[in-house]
Specification:
Blueprint lengths: L6 H45 L4 H5 L16 H32 L2 H12 L6 H19 L8 H25 L3 H9 L4 H12 L1 H17 L2 H6 L17 H8 L9 H31 L5
Helix pairs in contact: 1-12, 3-6, 3-9, 5-6, 6-9, 7-8, 9-12, 11-12
């Protein structure tokens, strides 16, 4: 009878297997945490080396960024201005279109249309960003120049429009998930009171899903701030303080690409600037993600 497993041995085996599975899952979770900590450590270490040679006043109070020129200036704000300018204009494209698409798929489209339309919309997220960059440069820019002749060949507007279409699936998909999660009973109660479909969508469902929609918006902004290839190809390499999207600008990610091409000597001051800029970019995206988390907790609706 030794070959027959007793209930006690089966229980012990099951507990051993569960411990092994938990250990494997913990290991993979630990790898992601350690990777994040390693990235932060490298950024902090290299940024500290940068600030040994450049003061905080030169970095935060100056308004010119020319670390690759003979007359070196290290004011970060032209790069921040270019990044925010492109991201803000991209959101002017992505937010209304994405939210309207989400409302249509959630409130107006049939289940069959929704199952077909949503994957097609998400195909936009699978297009390589370098394709969006050349699309902005070769297609959007000529259209802008035909409408506004003063538009420069490399400009913030064309990059922002292309970026808006790139992040459109993020806004639409996450917002649609938030809207679709609102219980059907909430909609039926509003219809029973005589509300129209548009009133139910805009005055009942959207406010009920506000936390998810706000999180989608902020995550989309974070991705726009961190986008690289579109701005590197279409926006230009002229760091300047301007609010005119028709002018050439440079973003933080585009500058990092420019310095990382291999022409800058390793461990030089110009080389160290990419870590200072990277740390600034990291802090901006971290702030956006923290804001998304806080908004989600603040406005979350719980239905029973």
């Amino acid at each position: 009878m030794s070959g027959i497993s007793t209930p006690l041995s089966l229980t012990r085996r099951r507990r051993t297997e569960e411990r092994a599975v938990r250990a494997v899952l913990f290991f993979f979770a630990l790898v992601s945490v350690l990777t994040t900590l390693g990235i932060i450590y490298v950024l902090l270490q290299e940024t500290a080396l940068f600030f040994r040679e450049v003061s905080f006043a030169q970095f935060f109070l100056d308004t010119r960024w020319t670390p690759l020129f003979l007359s070196k200036r290290f004011g970060i704000w032209p790069l921040v201005n270019g990044t925010v300018l492109v991201a803000a204009n991209a959101m002017l494209v992505a937010l209304p279109l994405g939210l309207l698409a989400a409302i249509y798929m959630s409130e107006c489209a049939s289940e069959r249309v929704r199952r077909v339309l949503k994957p097609f919309l998400e195909i936009l997220a699978g297009i390589p960003t370098v394709v969006y960059g050349y699309f902005a440069l070769t297609f959007i820019t000529p259209i802008l120049r035909s409408i506004f002749p003063q538009t420069q060949i490399f400009n913030a507007a064309s990059a922002a429009i292309a970026m808006g279409f790139m992040i459109l699936p993020t806004v639409a998909s996450l917002s649609e998930d938030a809207l679709y999660a609102v219980p059907r009973s909430v909609r039926e109660a509003a219809y029973a009171l005589g509300a129209t479909r548009w009133e139910v969508a805009t005055q009942i469902v959207v406010p009920a899903a506000l936390s998810g929609i706000a999180a989608a918006f902020i995550l989309a902004v974070s991705r726009a701030i961190g986008e690289t290839m579109i701005v590197a190809i279409a926006a230009g390499q002229q760091p300047k303080l301007t609010l005119n999207p028709l002018e050439s600008i440079e973003t933080m990610t585009a500058y990092i690409v420019q310095v990382s091409l291999g022409d800058t000597p390793h461990q030089s001051l110009a080389y160290k600037t990419i870590f200072a800029v990277g740390m600034m970019l990291f802090l901006m995206t971290l702030g956006m993600n923290v804001a998304s988390y806080l908004l989600t907790r603040r406005f979350r609706e719980v239905y029973e």
